[in-house]
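Show me any protein, fold above all:
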Amino acid sequence: QVQLVESGGGLVQAGGSLRLSCAVSGRTVNRYAVAWFRQNPGKEREFVATISGTGINTYYANSMKGRFTISRDNAKSAVTLQMNSLKPEDTAIYYCAARAFSASTTVGDYDYWGQGTQVTVSS
């Protein structure tokens, strides 16, 4: 069993930065790939970024490449999403999710989810 708790959301002006954190608890954390997704009301949950259990492999949605960076510190059981050059369209609830073994960009592949953290980017 894995539990996830997000933190770090908030209100920021366009062009600014935010750093989201996902605390991962459970056994053998390094066996779980962790991803960030985001969602707005009435819309489907959207893939943002994912990182493999070892941290070697990372994948990003095209619109986040060059602006967002995902990283993890397994010793601290934490996954971080650094978001730079934020745009109003990045406004959403951001969720971290985990699955055993390989990383995936697909929502349905993830078994464990956090409660989400709100990110609001003002223009």
